[in-house]
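**User:** My hope is that you can spare some time for a protein that puzzles me. I have put the entry right below:
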Amino acid sequence: MQEVKKFLFLDIDGVLTPNAIYTPNIPPAITKESKKILKSAFARGFKLVFITARSPTELRKNSLEEWLRKEKMLTDSLIFSSSGLEQVTFSHEFKTKNGELVFKGEDAVLIKRPVVKRESFGQIDQYLFAKMLLGKEIKDRLKYKGFKIKSARTNEIYTDARIWFEFENETKKIRTEAVIETKKIVEELRNAFEKTGKFGSPVDLRVYDIEHGISIEPKELGKHIAVLRALKLNKIMPNDKIQGYAFGDSESDRKMKIRKDITFIKIKNNKQFVKEVEKILNQN
């Protein structure tokens, strides 16, 4: 009987760290408790797949990659770090309808398309162009509506394929209202792009409440891309059985559940993450 491979698909900020606060160019502070439970999972045969929108440099020196190397776990683990844009070119392997993944049963449907298409690079250019216009448009409109937007914590506007806003005195109600207003702006800009016909294909954007602000990103962007790539690297075919668990602190992370044999667990804090992995290990 073929051995069932086991995977932990891991968001970093808000899951392995004390909180979800992201400070650009500062390595994530992975807790001692996280490191201990990850070592236990690795020893029990789980492949560790780290998936984050952080840049590679934030994960190398004095950070995750160095720790994995020190513990002799690096060669058998995977890190999908990203400044965002490279993920856009790996998007054409999922079937989508109305901007959402299409599922057959509980499995995301895959279709045969080139991994990288010429149009993908054009879409990146269009997204950067849209981002310059859209970021200011959203910010101005939200301010006009009375939203108090925090100042950006980084000037590196081209290193992430998301537009991300945080709010003063943030609440669920504020974020929900901001998402509704932002969706209107995004749709208006998309319509404007389509009508002009001068700038190529308009970028299809989605708006998410990420629980510490809102994020506007291309529909192709998402941690599900890294899950698929990890499975392919491990030679997992669609009909092969695996034991997989995906951990994230945002609803947008739920996209990691692209197969029925991957369980998504939404994490509120690091303490909960440790307990959930302990439960999984006790069952194995």
